[in-house]
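Quarterly update from the structural biology core.
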Amino acid sequence: MSTHICDALIVACIDFRFQKYIQNWLTKKFKNKTYDYVGFAGSTKNLDIIMNQLDISVRLHHIKQVILIHHEDCGAYGKESTHDRHAKDLKKAEKLINKKYPDLKVDLYYLHLDGEFEEIK
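Predicted structure, tokenized:
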């Protein structure tokens, strides 16, 4: 059985309004790199499902990095779609990932409606 290795797992929402921004950003940021991509409503809102996908990506593709992207005006969050809520959920996901996979680099982003990527620290 051959081994398939890629650089990262990208997790973002399915919202069509942001796909062009995400693809353009990935084309620049991941030039000459490979990644697994998970598109899921609310991005990491349902963390159990995302962790399952992460487990598979780690096991099968030996990733070294995880990029989590939430966005402004997310329908999956409804009225709870605030910058603070997204930042809190991103940090919660990062903490869980770091606990389970301490060697993975985790980057968090909040994508604005105008296409600006804001890094969450």
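The mean pLDDT is 96.
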